[in-house]
Automatic annotation (TrEMBL):
Originating species: Nocardia neocaledoniensis
Record-given protein name: Amidohydrolase-related domain-containing protein
Positions of the Amidohydrolase-related domain: 22-292
PANTHER family linked: 2-AMINO-3-CARBOXYLMUCONATE-6-SEMIALDEHYDE DECARBOXYLASE, ISO-OROTATE DECARBOXYLASE (EUROFUNG)
SUPFAM superfamilies for the chain: Metallo-dependent hydrolases
Keyword entries, A-Z: Lyase
Keyword Repressor found: no
Pfam families: Amidohydro_2 (PF04909)
Gene3D superfamilies hit by this protein: Metal-dependent hydrolases
GO MF terms held by the record: carboxy-lyase activity; hydrolase activity
Coiled-coil region: none
């Protein structure tokens, strides 16, 4: 059945009396980088065991209009380097993108390299409101000594870090909850947002949330038919989802999703955790975290 995503989301917002959605997990990148990411997903079959078609493979301005037509009030431009001397350049691009895109939360990134503390400080001074780290793609440990001063800066600043550290869709050498637990032991002031609820180590990352009150998780791709067929969320964790309703943030992975955007929200509705939970996850929690009032 064809889904009219804009109409469905408008109805969803009406039912919940929501002014808008806030999506903390969206990707806007320099054009040449985005095309390389899409090429990776085009060939992701051997990695994930199934095709991964990009649903919103459009020009940047079309993608921006699409999000706004879906009722998204604020979103991110998540970027991530896969090699040294790339992060500072990406941060220059995201700063320019945020300056011309007022509804985008100014996003930055980093990589374990000697220059990282300098450009992280510069990004924060320039107004960065969230950082993105991708442990799998970057193929580095979050415990790399070169990152110690970076984590210290971020813990002191309070700027959130959205970190892809779970072992999905394919494990990396440094993915999983153990290094993140050690990172939080060393830097308890960090405001980490665990991407994809830590897929597939859902229980282990919820365990970390139990002992680290600043830890948050995003819903990106979780509970969709696509993800449930490969990494189903454990039904026994439903009560912790309800209990952590103030610390879960809506994310979509737009535009790199293999299904319509509506599915990301419909998956949350299917959890049947109540309208108040949905309001918090889809809007209120991010509004409070990023002071979007």
């Amino acid at each position: 059945m064809t889904v009219d995503t804009a109409a469905y989301l408008a109805g969803f917002r009406r039912r919940l009396d929501l002014p808008a959605l806030v999506d903390v997990h969206t990707h806007f990148m320099p054009d040449q980088v985005m095309r390389k990411v899409w090429a990776y997903f085009d060939q992701a079959g051997p990695l994930t065991g199934r095709p991964w078609p990009i649903t919103y493979r459009d020009d940047e301005q079309v993608r921006l209009k699409t999000l706004r037509d879906f009722g998204v009030r604020a979103f991110t431009s998540l970027v991530y380097p896969h090699k040294p001397r790339m992060a500072a350049w990406l941060n220059e691009w995201t700063a320019e993108f945020a300056a011309r895109t007022p509804d985008c939360l100014h996003t930055a990134t980093f990589y374990p390299e000697p220059e990282a503390p300098e450009y992280v400080r510069a990004a924060i001074a320039g107004g960065a409101r969230v950082f993105k780290v991708h442990i799998q793609v970057g193929a580095f440990s979050p415990l790399d000594p070169l990152l110690d001063p970076v984590w210290a800066i971020l813990a002191e600043s309070g700027v959130p870090v959205l970190i892809h550290c779970g072992s999905g869709p394919a494990p990396g050498e440094f993915t999983g909850p153990v290094p993140i637990g050690e990172l939080l032991r060393r830097f308890p002031g960090l405001r980490l947002i665990i991407a994809h609820m830590g897929t597939p180590e859902y229980t282990e990352f919820l365990d970390l949330a139990e002992s680290h009150p600043l830890l948050r998780l995003d819903t990106t791709m979780v509970w969709t038919d696509f993800s449930e067929s490969d990494a189903p969320f454990p039904p026994g964790e439903r009560e912790r989802l309800r209990r952590f309703g103030d610390r879960i943030l809506f994310g979509s992975d737009f535009p790199n999703i293999p299904y319509p955007y509506a599915e990301a929200v419909r998956a949350l509705e299917r959890l049947d955790l109540g309208d108040d939970w949905l309001r918090k996850v889809c809007h209120d929690n991010a509004v409070a975290l990023f002071d979007l009032r």
